[in-house]
């Protein structure tokens, strides 16, 4: 992830300087498969989903419904949220069963202490 | 041996398409382009081409299908007129933005309302800023030759842009002329096989066409598109040189007719240029230094070459078969005056003529040259924009 590949975009996270117009692929072509991973949409978020491990029943509804594959699952279990890509749509919190409510939406600016409005990313923080 | 035949503009374009044998043609019939689609579909039915012909339900679908086919690596074509081109509007910019080398003959016809099926240039002038290369043709021979050259221009690695080839509705599309056709195998060799750099069907090198492109990248892609346009003129010239070798017919960015030493000159597009030549001939025989610049490549605009061709002329009349409704004249006038802005010499006036198929005759063009004589003598311009041939 240290270099910016052709046809991908950088949303302002400090990496290499984005390419100039002479060097971008012609016609907006994306020349590499699967590179949507590199387009980090986490800073679009106004509300962030906060996952509470102690309440979670591992039904995986959040993982099924997340439109951005931003619910991180390891060995069949939810382990956290990928804040680099989560856009904060809240579908996961909505789909979390009412009796469980293991995911709560919090204002990005008030969530998770310092740096919350940024995009430090990594679901591991929450796991 | 090349053969001379008497055919109409539509027949000549359909014949060019048969010889080009595109992989995909998706088209919808519209007057006055209808015969192109009709004749070409007969070629398909008779097995004379290998083309996958898609008889779509609208022009929006026609160009959409052609965009998909082109992205899949096919040499793809369509053809249209007027309202059909207007219905393609959304997809025009997608074709150019995705840098797809589609070739589309357009038979010029007035836009509604009022509804009208005859020639003016309001349809293609409406697509002026769509990023398509625009080539205009005076007569049947040029329409045929331009469609064949357009394939090479569009697919050139320095261009990779869609190209429209224009001819005047009915005047040329339905007018019969003697045309020299090339041999099938000569055309086939001239355009060669299309080898796209990227294709949706190339599964070993997967690519995404038409992806979301936000404020962080869109501008770079559009700037790159503009840069590609800047290289079009050179490709148009080199393709024309190759074409001259197979046909003996020479083309450039525009035709200069008696322009070298002209003191007064007309700038025109398409079939009207033929009528202007008649008037220029008559004036020259009377010792009047009259000339014509017939533009072939209108988009991108070959501004440097136009400037050097016109800079010595004292008075210029630009004939526009479309209005911009800016109240400052037609689209060609605006470009020509822009090009000449830094020249202290030439006075430039505009005549909007022929809307909805109104004929322009020798007397009217004579009147334009008479006006130019006055302007060249006095240096004074009365009205910069005149509506020529309209009833007061």
What layout of secondary structure does this protein have?
The complex is a heterodimer of chains A (127) and B (392).
Chain A: E1 47-51, H1 61-65, E2 71-74, E3 77-81, H2 91-95, E4 103-107
Antiparallel strand pairs in A: 1-4, 2-3
Chain B: E1 3-8, H1 9-20, E2 24-27, H2 34-45, E3 52-55, H3 59-71, E4 76-77, H4 82-87, H5 89-97, E5 103-108, H6 122-126, E6 133-136, H7 140-155, E7 163-168, E8 176-181, H8 184-191, H9 218-230, H10 232-247, E9 254-257, E10 264-268, H11 272-285, E11 290-295, E12 297-299, H12 303-310, E13 315-320, H13 331-340, E14 347-353, H14 362-378, E15 385-388
Parallel strand pairs in B: 2-3, 2-4, 5-7, 6-7, 10-11, 10-13, 13-14, 14-15
Antiparallel strand pairs in B: 1-8, 6-12, 9-11
**Oligomer designation:** heterodimer
Reported for the largest beta sheet of chain A, the result is:
2 strands, antiparallel
Helix content of chain A: under 10%
Provide the β-strand percentage band of chain A: 5-15%
For the record, the CATH architecture of the largest domain in chain B stands as 3-Layer(aba) Sandwich
Number of domains of chain A: 2
Low-confidence stretches of chain B: none
Number of strands of chain A: 4
CATH architecture field of the largest domain in chain A:
2-Layer Sandwich
* CATH C-level name of the largest domain in chain A: Alpha Beta
Question: Which structural class do the helices and strands of chain A define?
Answer: mainly beta
Number of helices of chain B: 14
Strands in their spatial order, largest beta sheet of chain B: 9-11-10-13-14-15
Instruction: Note the total helix count of chain A.
Output: 2
**Strand/helix succession of chain A:** EHEEHE
Major sheet size, sense and barrel closure of chain B = 6 strands, mixed
**What is the percentage of strand-forming residues of chain B?**
15-25%
Q: Whole-Å distance between the termini of chain B?
A: 53 Å
- The Rg value of chain B, from CA coordinates, equals 21 Å
User: What is the percent of helical residues of chain B?
Assistant: 40-55%
């Amino acid at each position: 992830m240290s270099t910016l590949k052709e046809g991908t975009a950088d949303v302002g996270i400090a990496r290499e300087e984005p390419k100039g117009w002479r060097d971008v692929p012609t016609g907006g072509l994306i020349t590499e498969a699967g590179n949507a991973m590199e387009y980090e949409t986490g800073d679009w978020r106004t509300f962030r989903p906060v996952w509470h491990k102690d309440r979670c029943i591992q039904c995986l509804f959040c993982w099924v419904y997340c439109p951005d594959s931003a619910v991180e699952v390891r060995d069949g279990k939810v382990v956290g949220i990928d804040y680099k890509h989560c856009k904060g749509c809240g579908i996961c919190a909505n789909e979390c069963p009412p009796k469980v409510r293991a995911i709560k939406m919090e204002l990005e600016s008030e969530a998770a202490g310092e740096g919350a409005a940024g995009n430090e990313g990594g679901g591991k923080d929450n796991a | 041996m090349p053969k001379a035949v008497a055919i109409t503009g539509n027949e000549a374009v359909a014949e060019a398409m048969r010889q080009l044998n595109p992989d995909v043609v998706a088209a919808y019939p519209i007057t006055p382009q209808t015969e192109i689609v009709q004749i070409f579909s007969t070629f398909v039915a008779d097995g004379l081409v290998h083309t996958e012909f898609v008889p779509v339900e609208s022009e929006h679908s026609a160009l959409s299908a052609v965009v998909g086919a082109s992205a899949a690596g096919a040499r793809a074509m369509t053809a249209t007129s007027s309202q059909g081109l207007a219905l393609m509007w959304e997809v025009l910019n997608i074709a150019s933005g995705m840098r797809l080398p589609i070739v589309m003959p357009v038979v010029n016809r007035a836009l509604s309302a009022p509804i009208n099926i005859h020639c003016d240039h309001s349809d293609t002038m409406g697509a002026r800023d769509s990023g398509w290369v625009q080539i205009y043709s005076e007569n049947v021979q040029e329409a045929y030759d331009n469609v064949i050259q357009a394939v090479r221009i569009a697919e050139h690695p320095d261009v990779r842009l869609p190209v429209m080839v224009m001819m005047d509705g009915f005047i040329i599309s339905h007018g019969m002329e003697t045309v020299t056709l090339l041999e099938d195998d000569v055309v086939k060799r001239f355009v060669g096989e299309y080898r796209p750099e990227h294709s949706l069907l190339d599964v070993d090198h997967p690519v995404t066409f038409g992806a979301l492109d936000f404020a962080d990248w869109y501008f770079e892609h559009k700037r790159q598109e503009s840069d590609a346009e800047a290289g079009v003129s050179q490709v148009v010239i080199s393709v024309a040189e190759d074409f001259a070798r197979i046909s003996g017919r020479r083309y450039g960015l525009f035709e200069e007719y008696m322009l070298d030493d002209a003191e007064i000159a007309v700038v025109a597009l398409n079939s009207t240029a033929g009528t202007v030549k008649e008037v220029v001939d008559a004036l020259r025989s009377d010792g009047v230094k009259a000339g014509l610049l017939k533009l072939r490549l209108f988009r991108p605009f070959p501004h440097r070459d136009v400037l050097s061709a016109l800079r010595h002329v004292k008075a210029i009349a630009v004939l526009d078969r479309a209005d911009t409704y800016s109240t400052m004249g037609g689209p060609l006038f605006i470009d020509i005056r822009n090009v000449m802005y830094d020249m202290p010499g030439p006075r430039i006036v505009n005549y909007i003529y022929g809307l909805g198929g109104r004929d322009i005759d020798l007397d009217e063009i004579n009147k334009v040259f008479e006006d130019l004589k006055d302007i060249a003598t006095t240096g004074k311009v009365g009205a910069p924009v005149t509506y020529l041939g309209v009833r007061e």
